Structures are given as C-alpha cells and as structure tokens.
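Researcher: Predict the fold of DUF3631 domain-containing protein.
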Amino acid sequence: MEHSEPEPYSALSSGAWPPGAIPGRPGHLTGDPQMPAEESGSDATPVDQLAEAATPDPEPTAGSALLEELRAQIAKFVILPSAEALDAVTLWVAATHLQPAWQHAPRLAVVGPAKRCGKSRLLDVLTETVHQPMLTINTTLAAVFRSITEEPPTLLVDEADTIFGTPKQAEKNEEMRGLLNAGHQRNRYVTRVVGADHTPHRFATFAMAALAGIGDLPDTIMDRAVVIRMRRRAEGERVKPFRSRRDIPVLHDLRDQIATWVRPLLDEAADLEPDMPVEDRAADTWEPLIIVADLAAGAWPRLARTACTRMVAAEIEAEEDQPGGARILADIRRAFVVQREPDSLTTDELLHQLRQDAESPWAEWGRSGLNAKDLAALLREFGIRPGNVRLADGTQRKGYTRFKFLDAWRRYCPTVHSVNAEASPVSG
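Model: Structure tokens for DUF3631 domain-containing protein follow.
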C-alpha cells in the first residue's frame, strides 16, 4: 500500500533520503535537506545516495495499512509540525502495544511555546489509541508505582509545565522526574518502604510515557524523548473537532486491530537489532519506533529513518532556550511597524526599539536589558535566527529579516489591526 500524505504535509515528505541521512550510518545528521553531502559530514558519495534512494520499499504487511490508517486518524484531529513528526507519533503509538519487547521505553515530549498549540488534543487522541493509557491527573506517585507491572501501562501527563515549570515545582516533584528518568530503561527499580512495618519493596519503573506542556521539559526527560514541537494553527489550517461519542469507538477499533497485529510479533520484535541512522541515547529512544516500522514494511522503514534523522538533528542543533512566549514576537512586530515595515532591522536597531518600550520587560531583562544573545535564544524556539542584513551604505551587519517572522506572526499574533492601532507610523 502506498504511503498517502494528508494534505497539510504533502509538500513536506519526500520519497528520497535526505543527504547525509543514510540508514545504518550513524552520525550523518543534517536538518537541511538541501545541504550537500560534503558539508553535512557524510562520507557517502552522490552515487551511494542515489542507489539508496532507488532501493525499492519492501512488500508491505498488514501492519503497514494499519499504520496508514492510524496516521490518517491522528491527522484528522491535530496538525503536527511536519510529516516526520506525524510519522513519529504514529509509530510511537504502535510501539506502546509492544512494551514487553523493548529494552528502552521512549518518552514522547509534546511541547509548544504557547497555549492552544494542540498539545492536549493530541493527548486526547493518544489516550484512545495507546496500550492501557494511564492519565496521571490527580494520581499519587505511589499509585503510579503500583500500576507499573511486567505489562506496564502507558503514562500520559498533561500540563507537565505545572509539574516541572519552576524550581519549586521541580523540587516538589523530583520523585516523579526520577521515575520518568529511570523508567526509560528496563530493569531500573526503585525501593520504597511499605506497610505498617516499613518493609522494603522494589518497584518497577519501566513504562512508555507521553508528556505535554508549555516550554521544554527538564533536560533529563527531553534527552530520553521523541520531541514533538507543536505550533499554533495558522489561518486556513483546519482540523476535525474531537467528539467522544463519535470518534472514540473508531479509535478503539483501530487500537485493537494494531494490538492484534503486533502481539504475535513480540518475540521477533525483541530479537531485532535494526540499522539505526543515529547513535547513543537517541538510538536507544528511537529503536522501538524503527522496529515497528520494519515489522510493518512498505514505506515505513524509510519514513521512520527519515523522521529519526531529521528530528534528532533538529534537537541537536537547538540550544537551551529561555521562556519567551508570544510576547517577544508581538513586540518585534510592533517594532517593524514603527519603522514603516522595512525588509530588515539590524540587531542593534531591534534591541533599541524593544528596550525603549516602557511597558515591555525588555529594558530590565537580565542585568542590563535584553541583549543580542538573549534575543537569539528567545527567537530560536520559534525557528528564527539572525543573519547578515545589508545596510543602505552597502555594508552588512547582523540582524533579522522581516520575512523570517511572517509564519510565526501568523500563528502566535495574527491580528494585524491591533498592532497597527497601537503603533501608528510617525507622521512626517
């Protein structure tokens, strides 16, 4: 069965391997599909890459069609940031039904820079499709420990930023973070005393988990996760409303079909050691998804390795960000309006505009106001980076071009009229 692309992703997923992302050749990572092989660090020649891309997909199994259907169902209700992210979520859901086979239990970190990015809706869909979902809302840590057995549930944590968002919250929930860290690898137990006589008891921790929240989760969790960086829907992007009575029976039927397909393959899955395009902990985390893809065959082995390569490369390149939210985008938009919508602003000009707004936090940001490094860190979360901009005298300086903000403005501060009303151009 051919891999059918839902409309929002039709331009994002291709049949060819990205340069430098060859299955089984660790370390050849690039997030830029246009990057030449010699710049990406790959030792593969163009001939090698063409031969790899020309290799036909293996004959699909019944599982390939089930994964296609699951992928389509997820895409009905939530818009993922890329075709690769949609493939990854699909494979992660299927992998929850084979947890006894895995050495590592990948986390799914569903994060976004602001509210209303679809994080909770994705968790709604996961709840109805994963193996034995266990929502941790108002659930004690002791109850979670006692629920993890040799056939573990799938832990689902919404609003994870309320658990780990501040140092005080993180300290209060340190045991939960320890459970999530230890549970990434099989045979990592924790010992607690139980009962009136305080008898030591060893509890299992191994279980797959999905966590959704605003901003990045603790580094130790992100490092063990398939990271899905959600975005707010832009104008014109549509999803189907989720209705429990109508949609849950359909998702449950599909869930049961996937479980029926994979359960006889448990021993085979446990014995597989697939070629991985990444190494170390990233390989540990992605291996269950790659194995599910190899069991399904068809286009899935290729799609899974493409998703793995590109998404891991993106996380490697991303530096630790400071929380900024949509405020920085709205204020930068206002700065461009005040300057009569130029094609670009130098970093110094933009910082001057931001810091002179008495109602903004930027003049008092850090020790001496927002600086170039802080600004770059705030914008990196939205995929916006500085570059060289040309001045009127022909010289170049570091700055930001307006077109790089257009997509983020559409998603996080789309009301043009309110910006124009607050920042009218200077008359002259």
